[in-house]
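Checklist before submission:
- one chain only
- standard amino acids only
- sequence pasted in full

Submission:
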Amino acid sequence: MARPTRSRRVCTEPAYDQFIPCGIAGGDRVLLTLDEYEVIRLIDLKGHTHEEAARQMQISRTTVTEIYQSARYKLADCLVNGRPLEITGGNYRLCDGGEMRCGGCRRASHLPDDTTLKGKGETDMRVAVTYENGNIFQHFGHTAQFKLYDIEDGKIVSSQVIGTNGSGHGALAGLLAQGGVDALICGGIGAGAQNALAQAGIQLFGGVQGSADEAVQALVEGKLLYNPDVHCNHHDHGEGHSCGEHHCGENKNGCHGNNCHSGN
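Returned file contents:
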C-alpha cells in the first residue's frame, strides 16, 4: 500500500489565480497547484532557502526541491510558449495563523493578541528541549514534557513548559510541528523519530546532556556540542537504563555511534 502524501502547509491562497498572455494564447492552460505557488512565493519572492521553505511548509527539503522544479518548469512553459496559467488544486492545507510562526501571514494578523505567534526574522526560531527537572530528558520517545524557547535577534525572549499528554514516539514530532518548533535538543532518539522530525522540517541536535537552559544558550551562541549521528534504541538497554546516564564521548556531551550502550 502506497504511503499517503503529506499535505503541504500554505500560508494563504493567492490574491490572483489566473494569468493570460496578451494576444493569442499558445495552447492549453497550465495548472499550477497551490503548493507549487507557495514554494515559488517562499523561495523566489521571499528569498528563503529550500530548508527554510520546507520548515515553513512542514515537509521535507527533498519534497520542496521536487515541487520547486515542477513549478519552475510550468512557469517557463507559460512564458516561452505563451500559455495561460491558473493556480488551483494541489495537496495542501491552509495555515490557521497560529500553528507556526511564518512571518507576514495575513491570517495571523486577524487573530487575538494572546494567540498570535510572532513572525520570525532571519535569526528567529523556536527551540524545543526534552525536559525534566531543569535538565535534558534522555529518551525522546518517553519525555513527559518539552520546554519551548523563543529566540529573537540572538536572544532567548521567552520560554514555557508543555506536557506531551502521553504521546508516543510517532506523535511527538507532530506535536512539535503544531507548536511551530524549528529545532529540537534532546539526548537519545531513534531512527524513526529522526525521520519524523526531518519530515516536519525540524532540525535535530541530539546526544546532549545537562541543563536545558544552558544548552539552548549554547545553541544561540553557536557553541552547542551535539552528536549529528546520535541513535539510541532503548530496547537495547538493560532495565532501568536511561540513555545519557553514562558518558560515551564527552566531546559530544552524549551518545555516539549507531547505538547508545553503557558498555564498551
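Reviewer check: The longest strand covers residues 155-163.
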